[in-house]
Each structure stands twice: as structure tokens, then as C-alpha cells.
Amino acid sequence: MSRGVVLWPDDPTSARIEDLWRSLEAAGIPSLANHSHRLHRPHLSLVVADGLSPRGALDALEAMSRPTPTLLVNSIGVFAGGVLFLACVPTLELLEAHAAVYDAVAPLARNPWSYYSPGVWTPHMTIAYGLNEDQIARALALVWSYLPMEGHWTTRGVEDSDTGERWLSPASAPP
């Protein structure tokens, strides 16, 4: 089981990304709309670990200041294994927020994933998993038509990637 400390975008940005997921599905390209438990929400993972207590992570988040980094997306990326993602602009504000959250939460985690450590992390929102080269090629033009995106990260909390269960920071509005 993996859990992550995540930021969820504002409602208009979430709706735009969910529309993108549906557009990919309509074009015959699998997206997070229908992946695994089908409870996925657009989000940015700040820390991911094999084990993470939601209560401990939320307590660490609550002890920190609450700046809301701006969400900017103007490019697309692909990780090995055919993982297609929206690349979030790594503004200084976002990088500082990430480092603060990572430093507060990683000591509470069991086996934090190294890809999410400061200096290595690629800020992104996954839109599809396991695509082949043809699917990626077809998806790029469709995804590109949704860019750029600009919004705000309005909600933070913990998400279980296996079940879709979410624990919201008390200071956050529901995603």
C-alpha cells in the first residue's frame, strides 16, 4: 500500500483535468478516469511512501504555515513505463512548500519513495499509466489542447493510492 501527502487543485482546474481524462478515454486511450478503483482525483503528490499514518502526516501539515502555491501547467511529460503527466511549473514557491512538507512528513513515513525527495522531485499530475508508444503519440495532441492551465492548490491531505481513500487537512475545503 502506498500513501501520499498531496495537494488537490481548485474545482475549475480539477474539472478541466477530469474532462481531459474523459477525452482521452473517448479517444480509446486509458486515463485515470477508469484506472484501478476509479476514485482518482487530480492531485500533486509531495511525499509518497509505502506506509504513512494519515493522522501523523495531517498533524505535521497543520503545524506548518499555509501558503497556497500557484498551480501552473504548460507542458506534458512521460515517465518510463508509459506514464503520461501534466508537468507543473516548479516555481520557487512550490519547491519551498514541497521541501517543507517533505521535511516534516518523511521522518514519519515507512520507506519514503526517493523520487519525491527535494532536489529529485518532478512536480506532476499523472493523467495515464502504462501507455504504449502509439497511445502516447495520440494522447499528446489531445493533452496539448488543454494547455496552459493556471489555478491554485486549495486542499491538502493524505491519499491512499490503492483504495482512493482521502484524509483532508482540517484547514482545507473538500476536494
User: At CATH's second level, what is the architecture?
Assistant: Alpha-Beta Complex
What's the β-strand tally? 8
Q: For the record, what CATH class applies?
A: Alpha Beta
- The helix-and-strand class reads alpha+beta
Rough shape? Answer: globular
The largest sheet, given as strand count, sense and whether it forms a barrel, is: 8 strands, antiparallel
Determine the mean pLDDT.
88
What's the N-to-C terminus distance? Answer: 22 Å
Helix fraction, binned, reads 25-40%
Helix-strand string: EHEHEEHEEHEE
CATH level 3 topology = Cyclic Phosphodiesterase, Chain: A
Individual helix count: 4
Describe the fold and architecture:
- By secondary structure, this protein is α+β, with helices and mostly antiparallel strands.
- The protein has one domain: Alpha-Beta Complex (Cyclic Phosphodiesterase, Chain: A).
- It is built from four helices and eight strands, in the order βαβαββαββαββ.
- It has helices at about 10-25, 55-60, 90-105, 135-145; strands spanning about 5-10, 45-50, 70-80, 85-90, 110, 125-130, 150-160, 165-170.
- Strands 1, 2, 3, 4, 5, 6, 7 and 8 form an eight-stranded antiparallel beta sheet that branches.
